[in-house]
Amino acid sequence: MRLLLSILVLSVWPVLGADLGPQLLSAAAEGKNPEVTALLGKGAPVDAHDKRGRTPLMLAAQHGHADTVKLLLSNGSRAETRDKAGYTAYGLAVLDPAGRGDHTAAIQALPQPARPRVALDAIVAAGALISSCFMQPGELKQEVTNLALDAATAKEIVDYGRASGKGLIEIAQVAKPTDADAQVTVEIQPGAACQAQAGDDLNLNIEIRVYRAEDHELLQEKHFAGGFKGLRKQSVSNISQYGPVYLAWIKPQAGPMYWFIVDALYRSIAG
After folding, report:
1. Mind giving me the DSSP string for 50-96?
2. Facing residues of 211 across strands?
3. I need a labelling partner for 64 at 20 to 30 A (CA). Which of 42, 102, 146, 205 fits?
4. For residues 195 and 237, is the Cβ–Cβ distance under 8 A?
């Protein structure tokens, strides 16, 4: 009889522990360390996960509870686990923090990932340069080429990263793309079309693609700065206005473009 009872207890224990998972997730998100300790002692799985694939460690880090992060790590929680969106605990704490508190201590309590090295390649595509009231088609393309919008866009992204990017990625000059962790292609697509008496209508689209360097797998892509449907359009009355208009659109996109690149990498490579 005693043997039978022992077998029954052992078989039921994992089920009871699993049932404690939601309680552990809630306690970790709220930073209730005594409750977390008690639940772990009762067999709650340290890496239980919710419907988004987030573990107690992820929730503790996301909500900025440094002591809870340390407690869960000391009990074997895996910092490298990713949720369904691809974030680790570190990625969530840095890129999707919850609440208004300072998350610095929680971030520092986690294993610190290496900064991804990014090879950034900016190019200008002329396909949307339809016509100009002031230039022939060949002159139009040459005029826009001379604006060096590719170099200007790359510089804006790099400068933003240095000033406000929290050191999360390194945009590096590399001998070949595979020397980096990721390849980022920034395609600047300036548009122009003659509107007779109104002058030239300008528009701008920027398309970013982030690839894993080792296998060139596309990780994420996104369009910035408007598009070709009038969401971003301005009429100009002479050639000299082209550069200022395009650059005025590019500059405020530097931050969103930088954080898009960071987000793509911390969902798949870093964190």
Report:
1. -TT---HHHHHHHTT-HHHHHHHHHTT--TT---TTS--HHHHHHHS
2. 183, 218
3. 42
4. no
Contact predicate 192/200, CB 8 Å:
yes
Q: Residue 198: what pLDDT?
A: 81
What pLDDT score was predicted for residue 95?
A: 95
CATH 1.25.40.20 is right for the domain spanning 2-109: yes
pTM of the model as a whole:
0.87
* Percent of the chain surpassing pLDDT 70: 90
Residue given tokens 């050639």 in the structure block: 239
State pLDDT tens for residues 31-50.
999 999 999 999 999 999 99
- The domain made up of 117-266 is a member of CATH 3.30.70: no
Note every long-range contact of 27-35, with CB atoms under 8 Å and residues 24 or more positions apart, other chains counting. Answer: 27/56, 28/56, 28/57, 28/59, 28/60, 28/65, 28/68, 28/72, 29/56, 29/59, 29/60, 29/62, 29/63, 30/63, 30/65, 31/60, 31/63, 31/65, 31/67, 31/68, 32/68, 33/67, 33/68, 33/71
